[in-house]
Design a protein that fits this description.
heterodimer, A: mainly alpha, Glutaredoxin, about 5% strand, globular, B: alpha+beta, about 50% helix, about 20% strand
């Protein structure tokens, strides 16, 4: 998404209307920003009122260029004030979201939907924001109720895919709502023109749910289609960076299918094409490890460690230690865990806590399991 | 053809003026210009 949407002419036209900040959430220097403004994953887009240093709008997940342009307009309008009716209620919801209060945000979004009615220009965006707010506030019943009510009538585009994605997450096993979401997701993965990240994410979610619910035939069928879709996108991608975006998904698909060898040639190519990026060797380590080629996997970890930073680097130490244990080299594994702990303790407070705890646990257990 | 090439180079030379990984600097720029601050949060993985 970074490789294309953020360079779109429609966004570039807004250059003089905003100040622009790009934040790599893995970099320790950004820890305080991430702690203040982010709650979910990445990508995340935030519009900040600079005078109050408050987020007036948070958007999790991908967006098309026209959607981002609309989000910019919404953020600007929220700072300027003056919105009325449903638009004002939406701005209140966005503000609550920006303050990491998703339950309160959901209440405003519900009111905005009711006030806006079926032809309101912001309806689709508000449905997405509402479903996400319910999931982030762990109100899974309202999340699936909303997705099941709204998704069937939505235009078949990125917003539909995103709403169904969250609906799948929120639906309980064995319910008619889950069956409905699965049917809509089967439709969603075939919609043309949707960003590859979104289609891939929907494939992954759907395959995982089929596997969770012990429908291995459907899980394998879905993951096989997912992998083929990614291979097609990689073949069409304009450059190495765009391919890399899909490579991350490709490894997940191959791993899901327990066929790591299907992703290996592409990851080896990425490693040649992007020598400064830690992701290709990190992914190669995972694939070699699954194939039982531990020596090569450990060597890939070392290559990744030389380039990585932040929490992911501590995670690579953990992977390396586990690989060395599988290679029956507990002394080297112990050293990898110790190095990882030492590195993790240099990270800003809070950010490396869970990975350091995992490294400490692994260190304590080295050599204790047969 | 020439027109297309001009368009290509014109679009290739324009991009958003991102501040990389420096919230304080971007915030100061937003305050100075009385503009909202738009932030993209991403990860390399």
């Amino acid at each position: 998404m970074r490789a294309n949407v953020l360079n779109d002419a429609a966004l570039v036209k807004q250059a003089g209307q905003f100040a622009w900040l790009s934040v790599d959430s893995d970099k320790p220097v950004n820890a305080a920003f991430v702690d203040k403004f982010a709650t979910g994953g990445v990508p995340l887009f935030v519009v900040i009122d600079p005078e109050k240093e408050q987020a007036v709008l948070n958007w999790y997940g991908t967006a098309t260029a026209p959607q981002l342009v609309n989000l910019l307009a919404d953020g600007k309008s929220a700072i300027g004030g003056g919105a009325a009716g449903a638009d004002a209620l939406l701005a209140r919801g966005d503000a609550m979201n920006g303050q990491k209060k998703p339950a309160e945000a959901a209440a405003w979004y519900e009111q905005a939907l009711q006030a806006g009615g079926p032809s309101w220009a912001h309806r689709t965006r508000t449905i997405e924001s509402l479903v996400m707010a319910y999931e982030f506030s762990q109100n899974l019943a309202k999340c699936i109720e909303t997705a099941a009510r709204e998704a069937p009538g939505m235009r078949r585009d990125r917003s539909f895919v995103n709403t169904v994605y969250f609906g799948l997450d929120c639906a309980q096993p064995g319910t008619p709502e889950l069956k409905q979401m699965e049917t809509l997701a089967e439709e969603g993965v075939k919609i043309p023109g949707v960003l590859g990240d979104d289609t891939s994410g929907l494939y992954q979610n759907l395959a995982g749910i089929y596997r969770r619910d012990k429908d291995e035939e459907a899980a394998t069928r879905t993951a096989t289609a997912w992998l083929a879709y990614l291979q097609q996108q990689i073949a069409k991608a304009p450059n190495a960076e765009a391919r890399m975006g899909y490579d991350l998904h490709l490894v997940s698909a191959a791993t899901f299918l327990k066929k790591p060898e299907l992703a290996l040639p592409e990851i080896e190519r990425a490693e040649r094409e992007l020598p400064g990026d830690y992701n290709p060797p990190k992914l190669a380590a995972s694939l070699y490890g699954q194939m039982g080629r531990y020596e090569e996997a450990v060597a890939e970890c070392d290559r990744a460690l030389a380039k990585a930073y932040g929490v992911p680097k501590a995670g690579i130490y953990l992977t390396k230690g586990r690989l060395l244990e599988k290679k029956k080299d507990p002394e080297a594994a112990r050293k990898a865990y110790e190095d990882g702990i030492a590195f993790g303790r240099t990270l800003p407070e809070g950010t490396g806590k869970s990975v350091v705890a995992a490294l400490e646990k692994a260190l304590a257990a080295v050599g204790k399991t047969p | 053809m020439i027109f297309k090439l001009v368009l290509f180079f014109a679009s290739a030379s324009v991009s958003l003026p991102w501040v990389e990984d420096n919230y304080a600097q971007a915030l100061a720029a937003a305050k100075a210009r009385h503009m909202p601050l738009f932030v993209e949060v991403w990860a390399p993985w």
